[in-house]
Amino acid sequence: MTNNKRRLSPYEQNFLRRHGVEPLDCIFNEDIPVEYIVGKAEFYGLTLFVDQSTLIPRVETEELVSLIIGDFGDLATKKKITFIDLGCGSGAIGITLVLELAKRGFSGSAIMTDVSSSALKVAKKNLDHLKKHLEYKNLVVNWEFTLVESDLLSDVSIPACVDFIVSNLPYIPTEKINNLPTSVKNYEPLLSLDGGKDGFSLIYKLLMVLSMNDAIIDTTIYLEVYDEHDEKFISENYPILLRHFEISFILDINKKNRFIKAKKITR
Ligand SMILES: C[S@@+](CC[C@H](N)C(=O)[O-])C[C@H]1O[C@@H](n2cnc3c(N)ncnc32)[C@H](O)[C@@H]1O
């Protein structure tokens, strides 16, 4: 360990102060993310518990939530929604979706899964906190939550009509993990980052599992992906997916390819 004092950015200083830590009291000589110091992260206007078993939810993922709300939030014909948040980590996506949908009058069922039991504990802590919190408990009262420890969908009982599945699976190609900032590669869980050789292994596996599952018919699949996982990448490397799914590619705020929206082609 070096003795270099860490220079905190104004954002980091404000973040620490907002969460009750006076940055001048601390000498940081490691680049641990401030979110792990206070055990909390901000996402879509909420403060969520995080620890080193969970990814710190990112701003791009807030866009994924907005994308889904844009598609489902205004549906006048349907007021009950069932969805799966696969690889939920801290629960950021599933929890904010429930709150945003509930604010728009929806009730329903949220199934949140992760292969990591430690991450699921954090998601449960966030859910329990929400259910007790004055501001949110009336919103979530008509929602049913199921937390499942599962490798992809292997241990999940998929209900008859799932409106959508959302997933932000690890998507960094293995050989690029080492190029990530030390605050990411030394602190965030590898299980949240490493997407295999080309970053698409788990996502491909999930899509193939879904392509073979008869319960998934009219379900929309929303995925966060690496910027290189664009139309060209998929047609060159995974053309089989285009036989099973109609896929749209959506850019993030930085104009980078970031989200996939897929629907099964029914024949
Ligand atoms: C990039 S993180 C996303 C966490 C959270 N959804 C978010 O957006 O902040 C990926 C998550 O997928 C989980 N994961 C990794 N492999 C998985 C698998 N085979 N099945 C289910 N979840 C998996 C990790 O434990 C991690 O929580």
TrEMBL record:
SUPFAM superfamilies: S-adenosyl-L-methionine-dependent methyltransferases. GO terms for molecular function: peptide chain release factor N(5)-glutamine methyltransferase activity. It holds the Pfam family MTS. It catalyses: L-glutaminyl-[peptide chain release factor] + S-adenosyl-L-methionine = N(5)-methyl-L-glutaminyl-[peptide chain release factor] + S-adenosyl-L-homocysteine + H(+). Keywords: Methyltransferase, S-adenosyl-L-methionine, Transferase. Its EC number is 2.1.1.297. Gene3D superfamilies: Vaccinia Virus protein VP39. One of its GO terms (biological process) is methylation. Residues 76-172 form the Methyltransferase small domain. NCBIfam families: hemK_fam. This is peptide chain release factor N(5)-glutamine methyltransferase. It comes from Candidatus Dojkabacteria bacterium.
